[in-house]
Every structure is written in C-alpha cells, then in structure tokens.
C-alpha cells in the first residue's frame, strides 16, 4: 500500500513494452517488497505480432475473405499494426479465437515459472481497470498469489466473483 504509486507507475512503464495493438497492459509481481518479475499482454516470445500475422497466416486470410475486407483496409491495418479482431469488427472480448496474445498477468506468472521464481505469497500489480479474466484469475489463485492490485475493480465475468468469494486472494485498487 505504501508503495502503490511506485508500482502503479512501474506497471504503466512495463505496459509500454506490450506488442498488443488492442490494449497495453503491464503486470508486476512483487514479493517481500521486491519486484521479481514483469509481464505484458501480447504474443509469446518469438511469435510474430498481429500485423505480420495478417499478412502471413492462412487462417486469417480465409477470415478476411469471409468478412469481405478490402485490400485497402488490409493495407491500412498492416501499416497501423491493427489488431485482427478490430479489422474484423469485433469489440472487446469478442473474436478471441483470432488473438494469439497472452494476458499480462499470465505472461508474468509464466515468466516467473520459467526463471524458477516461486510466486507463492506474491502481490500482482496490474495496470488495468478490470479484474483478470476467469482463467488468469484462477491461475493467480493456483500460483499462490495473495493479492491482486488493479486501477479499478470491475468484474467482467461472474466466474471471477465466484472464485474470489471462494478463495483467500485479496483484490484491491491502487491507493494513489
């Protein structure tokens, strides 16, 4: 709580590294008041970002044909690095089958695991205005995260509230 402003600013700085063209979110894992790992939303290491995928993925090529998207819109999407889901007209949370990005909190937890860092008892700070999705939230519980700190507590999915009510994890807003 005392360092919320510092971690809030750090999360926002980390978020700038995101290769996701739809939304930039950062996550910071803190254990014993020490930053041990970070994560951003976006594709896994080595996976090309969206603009490359629009050009090269045969699955997206078929979807582009299905939605009758013009060459001009495709070129524009590539130039501005538009998210394929936006190109197809999906709103937030729709068309996720065309998204190869991981959420920031998942990338953070997986990076910690890859480096052999225990996440048990950690505090996960996330530069987002809503709670993690149900899968990410359950992963935080399973990883032993004791607290999640967000810009604003908003639950997009009733499953998250159920998990929160039936776990020991604390969710709170940044105290700025």
Helix content: 25-40%
Q: Largest beta sheet: what is the strand line-up?
A: 2-1-5-6-7
Number of domains: 2
| Distance separating the two termini | 9 Å
Task: Say which CATH homologous superfamily of the largest domain is assigned.
Answer: Cytidine Deaminase, domain 2
Structural class: alpha/beta
Main sheet: strands, sense, barrel: 5 strands, mixed
Uncertain residue segments: none
Number of helices: 8
Q: Would you tell me which CATH topology of the largest domain applies? A: Cytidine Deaminase, domain 2
CATH class of the largest domain: Alpha Beta
The average pLDDT is 90
Name the shape in a single word.
elongated
Topology, number of strands: 7
Query: What is the chain-wise order of helices and strands?
Result: HEEEHHHHEHEHEHE
Quick summary of this structure?
With 176 residues, the protein is an alpha/beta fold. The protein is 39% helix and 16% strand.
Helix and strand layout, with pairings?
Blueprint lengths: L3 H12 L10 E6 L2 E7 L1 E2 L6 H7 L1 H9 L4 H9 L4 H4 L13 E2 L1 H11 L8 E4 L7 H9 L4 E4 L7 H8 L4 E4 L3
Parallel strand pairs: 5-6, 6-7
Antiparallel strand pairs: 1-2, 1-5, 3-4
